[in-house]
Structures are given as structure tokens and as C-alpha cells.
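Data deposition worksheet. Section B asks for the primary sequence of the deposited chain exactly as it was used as input, without tags or linkers unless they were present during the calculation. Section C holds the resulting structure in C-alpha cell form. Section D is free text for depositor observations; keep each observation to a single sentence. Incomplete worksheets are returned to the depositor.
Section A, Depositor: J.P.
Section B:
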Amino acid sequence: MSITAPSNSTPLPAPCPITAKDAHALSAAIHQREVSCREVMQAYLTRIDTLNPQFNAIVNLAPAEQLLAQADERDAELAAGRSRGWMHGMPQAIKDTGQALSFPTTLGSPLLVQALPAQDSTYVARMKAAGCIVVGKTNMPEFGLGSHTYNTLFGATGNAWDPSVSAGGSSGGAAVALALRLLPVADGSDFMGSLRNPAGWNHVYGLRPSQGRVPAFPKPELWVSQLGTDGPMARSVRDLARLLQTQAGFDARAPLSLGGPGPSPGGPGGASADSLAGSNLDSFMPPPDASLKGLKIGWLGDMGGHLAVEHGILPLLEQALAACERQGAIVEPVRLDVDLHRVWDAWLVWRRALVAPSVAAVMTQPGARERIKPEALWEHDQAQGLGFADFLAASRVRGELLHALLPLLERHDALALPVAQCWPFPLAQTWPREVAGRTMDTYHRWMECTLYATFAGLPAISVPAGFHANGRWPLGLQLIGRPRDEAGLLRLAAGWENAGLGMADRTPFTA
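Section C:
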């Protein structure tokens, strides 16, 4: 397809006092009746109307009068002394992979433009139960494939800092909406860095939870397909933890979902109040005085030269890690003792096996093959020769990867590596064919750095690390945590934030 870059010839307007607040402060202002839910909704709709045409982050926006009526209902509830939760009256747009009643789940495909869901995804239902008002969906690549948000249905999403370059993906619309203050917090999903890469490229925080932490339901398959996961994005670590808390928690309809980080909610699961309320625990929330002192970080870098990494990325991340050391952290280079070529080949098997059914589901429509992006067809066609023995062999390699990572995580609080192997590339480019002089042999080879946490089922976070020398392109540092230890990873990220690393307080409006 042809991708047109939006213009950014005029300075962006600064957010108003309402949209400038982080989600925690906005929630407090709503509940203290300092602002009404109608005022909040109107402020965000005004900002969306001003900026979204230029950046194309939010799609299928609901009519304003409908959203304002819902805000009035939330105000009436507060007047009667009732609050639905911390997100009461806050606007939320759902990534177009998630199911939200009354909004089509298009996956960025013109073949799914009328695919209205019969129920909310579990994490969407939980956010609604916490009080949010769903205003629309956020843009994504077709079928979520590739870390570049464009499709023939809605078009491309430009980076919040420079709309002539990629926003990343597949949660690119979510990251841009968050960075531009079109939303207080954002949700996304992560299969191969889809929460982490766009967060890194838009100067926000993105957390891929442990496999099973956020229940995946409804899904046509409940066991193997849990490799991808939904999760939170935010502009602060506190907001990130709070949104994860809302999304997470055991649900019996998703049999591999996790309880905790403390005791699982009572009851059998299903559509009970417990399953809709999430974990209802404070264990994810980092202490306000979190610091980096005494924490150990293992620096994987470019994996001993295995990863092609564009000029300037490794030095920038090493500068950020040096700043960690000045804050009392211990940073040391480490090596992952596993055959990374075998890991990549095993990843391709799993990816093809899981992507192919989504593509096959629309292939029966007339003219479908001509309307599906080539990368999706490639995944589908490559999967046709896969057998169970191939899949089982690839699964054994997954185990080898995890067992290679565990000793490193026993000695370190987190492992660090780039969250992207190149800088944001021109919006008109579908994917980079070459990185650091190396040919990229697949459309996602330049995202290889993100597969290790995914394939091992480990939590990982992208934290703001700094900017390209041109001052316009952000970059994130990826931190992989211990098994099921989102709480520890969030404490580390809060220490990072409290130390002011990565210039996390910068915005597209002050750059």
C-alpha cells in the first residue's frame, strides 16, 4: 500500500489542565469533584478532534453526544455517592485486537470492518467495571503483524514526536494516543514487542506481562495461543501498575491465567464479580520512594553481535545504564548461553502456527488473498507445511531458552537489551530491509530483540532511555524480569523514573 506521512509543520498545542494530568491525578480530581466526568470527556474529545486527524491514533471514535451522555451518567452516580472504581468517567480507547461491545474488532483488516463482537474481552470488561468509558479503538497494523502501524482500512499512524516516521506497533495507535494526551492510559497487546516497541518509540512506559497474567478471553483456542498477551501502557509507572492491577487476575474461562501476585480471587471464576474485578491487590504498586540502589542489571546488549543494531542505539542505552550505576545500581555485561539461531528458527515455527489461523479465518471471503498484506500471506502460506513434530521440536527450544535465562535472573533483578534494533523509520517504508548493514531476511527480523521475553513467558518493560541526536526520535530500554515478577520489574521501573532517567518528563509539546 501507499503510506502518506502526516504533516507536522505547526507546533502541537499543549494539553489543557485536565488532559495534562496523569491518570492517578485525574482519578483523584474526578472523585474529589474538582472536575466533572462531562468536563473530562469534553476536554479529551476536543484534544482528539484537534490532533487525531494529523496522527491517526484513534479509529472508530464513537459519537460525541453518546460519550457525553455516558459521562453524565457517571456524574449522576458520583452525586449519589457511588463510584465504579478508579477509572470512573475516564475515556479509554481499546486496541483493535480487543473486543469491545458496539465497536467492530477489525484487526486493521478491511475484511473485518463489520466484525462486531458478542462480548467484551475480559480485560476490557475489567476496565469497564473500574469505570472507564470506551470512546473508540486504537489503530494497529493489519492482523497485528509487524511493528509499524499502517493498514488499508484506516491508514498509517505517525509517531507522536515526528509523524513522518513510524510509531512502531502493533500497539502504535495506543502509544501515540497516550503520548499526545488523547487518553489518560492505554491498553495494548504484545506478541513480538507490540507493547514494548511503540512505547520505546513514543517515550512512554509499556509492560508485557507474564504469560497468563492478563486473561485472554474470549479466544477460539485457550491453551497454545496464550503466547500473545494484553497489557498496559502509561506515562508513569504508578499508572502502569494501576492499569495492570485492573487487567490482571485469574479467570477460569482462561485456564492458563494466573492468580496473584497474592492469593487468587475466590470463587470458581467464570463471569463472576471476582473475574471482572481483576486481582484487587496492591502488590503490583511500587513504593513511592523506589530507588535503583543495590539492584543488579545484566546487560545483554546486542547479544554478542548476534543482533543487528543501528548506529547510536547501544551507546545511548549504555549511557542510561551508566546513569543507573550512579544511582547505586550494579550493571554488568552478561551472555545468554543458548543457540540464538535455533531460538529464531523455533520462534518462526510458533509464530507461523499462531498467525496462520487468524489469516485463514478470512481467506474464504471472495477476493481475500488480493486484499491481505503480503506479510500476512507469507505467514499463512509458510505454516501450511508445519507438522506436530515441527511444533514440538520448537517447543523444546523454548524450554532451552527459558533454562538459559533463569540462571542469569537468579543473579540479576532484570536483564537489559534494546527494545528496538533501529530508530523509527520513514512512514512510507513498510519495514526496514537493512539494519546496520545487514539484510533483514523477514519483515520482523529487526524486532528479534523482543522475542526472548515472549518466548520464555517472562514479563518485560520498556522504559524511556533518551533520544536520537536529532532530538525527535525517542528510544526505550527493555528490561526483562524474573518469572511472574511484574511487581519487582515495576519497582525497578519506578526507581528509574524517580531518578529522572531517560528524560521521562519530556513531551512532544516541549521538545
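Section D:
The two ends are 32 Å apart (CA to CA).
Residues 187 and 260 are 20 Å apart (CA to CA).
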